[in-house]
Amino acid sequence: MCGIIGYIGYRKASEVIFKGLRKLEYRGYDSAGIATVSGKGISAIKDIGRIDDIHAKRNFLQLEGSMGIGHTRWATHGGVTQKNAHPHTDSTGKIYLVHNGVIENFESLRTSLSRKGHKFVSETDTEVIAHLVEEECKSAPDFGKALSNAVAKLTGSWSLVCMHQGEEAIYLSRNGPPLILGIGKGEMFCASDVPALLDYTKRVIYIEDGDLVRFTRDSYSITNGGKKAERKVHTVAWTAKMAEKEGFAHFMLKEIHEQGGKIREALAADVSGAVALLRGQQNIAVVACGTSYYTGLVFKQLLQSRLSVNCDVIIGSEFSYARTGKEKVVVAISQSGETADTLSAVRLAKKSGAKTIGITNVTGSSLWRESDACVNIAAGPEIAVVATKSFTSQVAVLTKIALSLPGSSDNLATLSEASEAIEQILARSGEIEALAEKLVTHNDFFFIGRSLSFPSALEGALKLKEITYLHAEAYAAGELKHGPLSLLQKDVVVVALAPSDSSLPKIISNMSECRARDALLVAFSDSDEAIGKSALSFRMPSVQPLAIPIVYAVPLQLLAYYMAVKMKKDPDKPRNLAKSVTVE
Ligand code: F1P
Predict the structure, then answer these.
(1) Atom of ligand 1 at shortest range from CA of 288
(2) Is 581 in the pocket of ligand 1 (CB under 6 A)?
């Protein structure tokens, strides 16, 4: 949903911004641009395509000066064109800004500005803001006031980074999408996310909604609602190395390989705040989107089947329609902590008096700041657009929470075997690559699981469709006979997750039903019987039921990864997707 960045200091701004945009590219990658200020005025380069390709064609580093702003885009208003790429400017070419978010009233603003003679060159909502600021500059005493008058006229969501000719300062405004200020020595930064700054500073301020910030190379001031605001300076624990590929061909592969160690870190998480809020509750609501929603399904199963606690898992964007309004405790799960659908559910729940628990990978994120209790899943930066290690770390943390509640007789130590099992699977990646080779010519995939392997089946199908663009869907295995069996025929692949738990006999019957319809059956199992029934298979390590959701997700991540690579797709940057979905 767009990555934005700004810099003032003693370095070459275009270089800092270019490098930072590469780190933010997971947020959007259909076009990019940089504008810098030098003695010659403001110059900009923007184009469609990936940042490296634009750089190869246009050379961002020809932009001079030690102050500038940059943007990597995930189109919302207006197609993917050079004109729609950011930064955008006003009629005078003296104001430049980049924007993440959606301005809902941009059509009416554009109409009234057009009446005043403003001419627009793009179809974007962002360009309207530049002209609005220009208009406000005519009456405001200074640029900061003009910007605050302009944002007061906006509805929607935005993080804005703005500069103008004649002042060595950058201005920020936030209402929704994330924005952080990075504090260096003799230099200051701002960006949508921490990895863009890790090469330069670890001291950051999380800008809050309603904040208006002015920063120079060695100072900053923050106001909110016209009053001076104090914001805590945080020291981030992530290192620049953590956000590198470290020899792996892709971030996705690196992140898959980190999971054994990350599970151990997740299991060490402090869950006391969450447990204190959940203790004694008989009805718990969970909100999340995408992969995080699936980890919510694991949590639900643990709470309901092992603790007899009722748990409702609701997709973030459906929460406002599906909630009762009487929720006492809402658990929100989000890797980024910035997913707009999840955040709006949290805000709605809070308004109705619910206590909220945030389960996130990003300390300082909106979810982190807005929740009554938080748990850090400690997976480290996840750069690939598709979630991998955040799935397994979330499941580990949620299992720890469930097992810490009264009535639980399970031992968390059984989960530590998950790390070992993951290492064993990773050591046999070659077998999964060989499976991928055999499956890559097929077009339709069904993933089936039962009980605790069902969320992993959902996750496996999601990974495959996200990065290979093949048709993949998941079903609770028993559900196939209620409709989807009609789709099975030769060449349709059924990936069956068949761990030897109490669900095994039934899933073996379901696998037989698929085989009888000529589907190509692929088993991920530790059962001889399930493997014997299947045309293709991967022998899984035997694990305790609690470890199943984690351990069975890993080979499916690898399968999707190797298939994408064989199909010459970029697994780190799937088409049309962005990692941090900051619009509803
Ligand atoms: C939710 C999510 C991810 C998915 C993609 C889009 O993100 O659906 O699971 O991989 O990146 O967003 P989050 O709320 O867990 O950050």
Answers:
(1) 14
(2) yes
Q: Whose CA is nearest to atom 2 of ligand 1?
A: 290
SS3 of 440-504: CCCCEEEEEECHHHHHHHHHHHHHHHHHHCCEEEEEEHHHHHHCHHHHCCCCCEEEEEECCCCCH
Domain that holds residue 212: 3-242
pTM of the model: 0.89
- Number of folded domains in the chain? 1
Structure tokens at 490: 């030769």
CATH number at residue 237: 3.60.20.10
256 located within any domain: no
Quick check: 25 and 3 in contact, CB under 8 A? Answer: yes
Residue 10 domain-assigned (yes or no) = yes
| Cβ(291) – ligand 1 distance below 6 Å | yes
Domain contains 83: yes
Looking at the domain assignment, is residue 297 inside a domain? no
Asked if residue 101 has its Cβ within 6 Å of ligand 1, the reply is no
155: left (phi over 0), alpha (psi -120 to 50) or beta: beta
pLDDT in tens, 23-79: 998 888 899 999 999 998 999 999 999 999 999 999 999 999 999 999 999 888 888
To test ligand 1's pocket by mutation, which of 361, 572, 579 has the most ligand atoms within 8 angstroms of CB? 579
